[in-house]
C-alpha cells in the first residue's frame, strides 16, 4: 500500500510563540515539522523564542509550511539544519530585527539521504523537487548559517533568497542552484554534483549577504578556444556579438591563429601561453569528449565535460573528465568542487 492510500497526518495547525520569556523547545532527537502533509504555520514574535534540533517546513507534496519570525529579540535557533520545501512548499520570513541561526539551510529540496525521512515516503513521492523561499527584511534582521555545512538555494528543487532593506545574511559557504557533496574513497575525494534552481537577491540600502568561503579568491579569465580553421578570432567574435555573448569572453583563440587543433596538447599549451597560465590553474569546459576532454587531460588541464544528453564516455578511452555536467547552471558548482579537491585552481 502506498502512503497516499494510508491515513495521513494532513491537518492544519498554527503555533504562536509571542512575548519576552516565551519559549518553544523541540530539542533532543526531535524534528519540528511545519506543514507535514497539510498546512502549518509557526509565528514567533515580540521577543518569543523557538529552539529545535531540526526544522522541516513543507514536507509532503501538498504541504505548505510558513514560518514567521518578527520583531526585535524574536529568535529561531536550530542546532542542526532547516529544510524549506522537501516535496511541498516551505517559506521563512525574518523581519523587523528578528534573528534566525542554523547549522545548515536548504531552500527548495534537500539531500534526501540526510533528511531523516521515512524511506516509504521517498519510494512513494519520488524525486525531491520542493519549493522554498526565505525573505530577510528590515534593519537588524539576521540569518546566520553558522556551521560548516552550507546554505543552499535550490537544493534539488527551486529556492529563492531575498535580502532587503538593511537585513544581513551570513554563511560559511553557499551554493545557488545546486550543490556539491564530497565522499572519501581511500585517498581520493569524490565530488558529486546535485542539481537545483536557485535565485538570490540582495537589494536596498544596507542589505548584506556575506559568505566566508565564497569560492574563488582570485579573478579568473574566460576564453573561447575553438577548432575553427577557416574563421579567425575576429569573425568568431562577430558571431558571438550577434547573439549577445561576446562580452563574456576575455579572449577568442582559434586553430587558425594557433596553427594547431584540438586534441593536440600543443593547442592547449599555446592557449595557456597567451595568459601565462600553468595547466593546473586552468579548466577546459567542452562538449566533445575526444577533442575537448582527452586533449585537455593530455595537456594536464582540469576538464569538465558538458554532456546534456547523458552520453557514456567513448569506449576504449582511458581518460576521465574531472567533472560531468548536464546543464550550464551546474558549471559553477563543478568548478567549486575542482577548486576544493585541488586545493585552489584559481
Q: Can you walk through the features of this model?
A:
The protein has 346 residues and is an alpha/beta fold. It folds into two domains: 3-213, no CATH class; 223-341, Rossmann fold, CATH 3.40.50. It is built from six helices and 22 strands. Strands 2, 4, 6, 8, 10, 11, 13 and 17 form an eight-stranded parallel β-sheet that branches. 41% of the residues are buried.
Q: Would you spell out the secondary-structure blueprint of this structure?
A:
Elements: E1 13-18, E2 23-34, E3 39-45, E4 49-57, E5 64-70, E6 75-84, E7 89-95, E8 99-107, H1 119-125, E9 131-137, E10 142-145, E11 151-153, E12 158-164, E13 168-176, E14 179-185, E15 188-194, E16 197-203, E17 208-213, E18 223-226, H2 233-242, E19 251-254, H3 255-258, H4 265-275, E20 283-286, H5 289-298, E21 302-306, E22 323-325, H6 331-341
Parallel strand pairs: 1-3, 2-4, 3-5, 4-6, 5-7, 6-8, 7-9, 8-10, 8-11, 9-12, 10-13, 11-13, 12-16, 13-17, 18-19, 20-21, 21-22
Antiparallel strand pairs: 14-15
Overall geometry comes to: elongated
* Helix-strand category: alpha/beta
The tally of domains stands at: 2
What's the SSE pattern? EEEEEEEEHEEEEEEEEEEHEHHEHEEH
Largest sheet: 8 strands, parallel
**Total beta strands:** 22
Give average pLDDT, whole number. 85
Specify Rg, calculated over alpha carbons: 24 Å
**Continuous helix count:** 6
* Head-to-tail CA distance between termini: 53 Å
Task: Report the β-strand fraction as a percent range.
Answer: 35-45%
Low-confidence residue ranges: 214-219
